[in-house]
Amino acid sequence: MIEIENVRKSFGPLEVLKGINLTVQKGEVLTVIGGSGSGKSTLLTCINGLEPIDSGRIVVDGIEVHAKTTDLNKLRRKIGIVFQQWNAFPHLTVIENVMLAQVKVLKRSKAEAEAEAVRQLKHVGLSDKLNVYPSRLSGGQQQRMAIARALGMSPDYMLFDEVTSALDPQLVGEVLDTLRMLASEGMTMICVTHEMKFAREVSDRVAFFDKGVMAEIAPPEELFGAPKDPELRKFLAATH
Amino acid sequence: MFNYNFRWGQALNSLPQMLEGALVTMEIAILSMAVGIVVAIVLTVFRLSGRRLLAAVATTWVEIARNTPALFQIYMVHFGLGSFGIHLSPYLSLLIGITFNNAGYLAENFRGALKAIPDTQARAARSLGMSAGQAFGSVVMPQMLRISFLPMTNQMVWAILMTSLGAVVAMNTDLYGVTSELNARTFRTFEFFAMAAVIFYLITKVITLTARLLAARLFRY
Ligand SMILES: Nc1ncnc2c1ncn2[C@@H]1O[C@H](COP(=O)(O)OP(=O)(O)OP(=O)(O)O)[C@@H](O)[C@H]1O
Ligand SMILES: [Mg+2]
């Protein structure tokens, strides 16, 4: 369970998160939508402790992320994250990308890590790309590799930050299919996305962020069918 | 006016001695590069550490190495330390001096290379639970070394040529030292120095070619 309690966060004078309260249950798929600069990415990077927060707290499975005593490296094993910008490690082959942290962080043997990497890459449909370098992959394949790399750590949570928004339109589908598959397998996920159709289909709940505030949160049929927040109405009208 | 008679026989007879000198030159260059790369990595980590004292040490090192003559650097190791009662052999003084210079130049190259690696690389590594050290060692550093490969090759060539600066500390076993002693004994200046120049040239060519082959093997991405 991820519990976010009254989290505030500023970059200099700019308050980016203005008191966020949100709980994500085990097995839940939450999608986050909202305008540019509304704080969606910042929230994800606060959840895995890449960014500090100013006040409030974030608790993952009973562990307070920003407590001084928390071992963030250990906590991050539980929380996989995939970013909008592709960040394959270019000097490693696809399979080495997926093996690296398993060996370094989880101290798995090479053989174990390799077996797990093969399994995850097969899972995301990259069985035929094991030994190529990322520069040979399309954007969609790079994103699926990044997903496999995160899954290789056997995380309990997956955070996705607009993983399709840097992709050519024809490649979006294959990545969304991978996310759908994970959702159907019961993975707990927070997906920041611009893909409204996808959000409608896979989400248990959808949250709408507006200027650092979570303006509305509801199951998709309710949020899309009968939006209450006036900004959300404008946002939905603009995206259709 | 031009009445110098070339006598190559004597010079050719001394070839084995000169080649031995060339080996010493190569040994110094290789050692000074190997240690220089390691020190440059340490200096780079110092600069990234966010600790002011460490960063200042690294910056000072780089500034001195790049902005004073290499000859002074070697001279200081030998005679400068000598005035504090630390007396190093010519060989060690030359080796340390060149290593100092290599480390400074390489650290600056590494800094440039790091600018070309997006922050998102380290972020992605940290997100996978890797420590800052692991992220640097396994993700950032290999890319940094790859980007710096050509400058490293140039520095290696430069290290070979810098061995001739051993003259200021009376180094006499390297290629330049051997040549200059032969010259002093025989006064066949042109022949000996021309041969030494050819040997220097061949060594540096071999280095650049080897580096190119190595790069093709190492960097397949
Ligand atoms: N490291 C940073 N330093 C300073 N300002 C930042 C930093 N990261 C984000 N911001 C600012 O914080 C605000 C929120 O950014 P964030 O990336 O969380 O928005 P977002 O909702 O993800 O937007 P988008 O849909 O464009 O990705 C923006 O105004 C952004 O410019
Ligand atoms: Mg964002």
Description:
The complex is a heterodimer of chains A (240) and B (221). Chain A is built from nine helices and ten strands. Chain A is an alpha/beta fold and 240 residues long. In chain A, a hairpin with a 2-residue loop joins strand 4 and strand 5. In chain A, helix 3 crosses helix 4. The longest helix of chain A has 16 residues, at 169-184. Chain A starts with a strand and ends with a helix. Chain B has a single domain (10-218), classed as MetI-like (MetI-like fold), CATH 1.10.3720.10. In chain B, helix 2 (15-48) packs antiparallel against helix 3 (52-67). The longest helix of chain B is centred in the first third of the chain and has 34 residues, at 15-48. The model of chain B has no long low-confidence stretch (mean pLDDT 94). The interface between A and B is medium-sized, with 26 and 21 residues. Adenosine-5'-triphosphate (ATP) is lined by residues 11, 14, 16, 34, 36-42 of chain A.
Write out key terms for the chains shown:
heterodimer; A: 240 residues; alpha/beta; Rossmann fold; 6-stranded mixed sheet; 4-stranded antiparallel sheet; 9 helices; 10 strands; B: 221 residues; mainly alpha; MetI-like fold; 10 helices; 80% helix; elongated; binds adenosine-5'-triphosphate; binds magnesium ion
What oligomeric state do the depicted chains represent?
heterodimer
Order of helices and strands of chain A: EEEHEEHEHHHEHEHEEHH
Bound molecules: adenosine-5'-triphosphate, magnesium ion
**What would CATH call the architecture of chain B?**
Orthogonal Bundle
**β-strand number of chain A:** 10
What is the CATH fold-level name of chain A? Rossmann fold
| Total strands of chain B | 0
Radius of gyration of chain A, in angstroms, nearest whole number:
18 Å
What is the SS-derived class of chain A?
Answer: alpha/beta
Summing up helix and strand content along with how strands pair, one would put the structural category of chain B as mainly alpha
- Average of per-residue pLDDT values of chain A: 95
Low-confidence stretches of chain B: none
Topology pattern of chain B, helix = H, strand = E: HHHHHHHHHH
CATH class identity of chain A: Alpha Beta
Q: What share of residues of chain A is helical?
A: 25-40%
| Domain module count of chain B | 1
Query: Distance between the terminal alpha carbons of chain B, to the nearest Å?
Result: 60 Å
Mean residue pLDDT of chain B: 94
- How does the overall form of chain A come out from the CA principal axes? globular
